[in-house]
Amino acid sequence: MFRVSKEFSFDMAHLLDGHDGKCQNLHGHTYKLQVEVAGDLLVDGAKKSMVMDFSDLKVVVKKAILDPMDHAFIYDQTSERESKIAMLLQELQSKTFGVNFRTTAEEMARFIFQRLKYDEKLPISAIRLWETPTSFCEYGE
């Protein structure tokens, strides 16, 4: 079995309501996302000897992750505080992306993995999400 990866980057703002440190405040990150797919090599056709064409992977990740999340305020819809901020931003025609979980690197990595594997049907084996150049989370099943 082969594993191939492609990296992406996107910018997003968030906060962690109830956190006991500075991340309780609105802030942003330039996230680096590494998407790893695994499988056997294709045996025929234009993509012979590939697990997946990197350009095909890019198209799916762009549509499912980057387009909706890049330069957005991602917020936990179960948090009253975060939802109020999102409502104000929406009134001001700013981009938001609501989820039903706390927007930690861990939960976001799991969300991205599940969205790509189950919604987009990609053979994802792992997601690595860097919140800073020195801090990342890896998720796989």
Automatic annotation (TrEMBL):
EC identifiers of the protein: 4.-.-.-
Positions with a binding annotation for Zn(2+): H14, H27, H29
Entry keywords, A to Z: Lyase, Metal-binding, Queuosine biosynthesis, Zinc
Catalytic activities: 7,8-dihydroneopterin 3'-triphosphate + H2O = 6-carboxy-5,6,7,8-tetrahydropterin + triphosphate + acetaldehyde + 2 H(+)
Signal peptide: none
Pathway named in the protein's UniProt entry: Purine metabolism; 7-cyano-7-deazaguanine biosynthesis
Entry GO MF terms: 6-carboxytetrahydropterin synthase activity; metal ion binding
Catalytic class of the enzyme: lyase
GO biological process, alphabetically ordered: tRNA queuosine(34) biosynthetic process
Gene3D superfamilies for this protein: 6-pyruvoyl tetrahydropterin synthase/QueD
Cofactor(s) the protein requires to work: Zn(2+)
Active site (catalytic residues): C23, H71, E131
Cofactor: how bound: Binds 1 zinc ion per subunit.
Function: Catalyzes the conversion of 7,8-dihydroneopterin triphosphate (H2NTP) to 6-carboxy-5,6,7,8-tetrahydropterin (CPH4) and acetaldehyde.
Family to which this protein belongs: Belongs to the PTPS family. QueD subfamily.
Name of this protein: 6-carboxy-5,6,7,8-tetrahydropterin synthase
Species, as recorded: Haemophilus pittmaniae HK 85
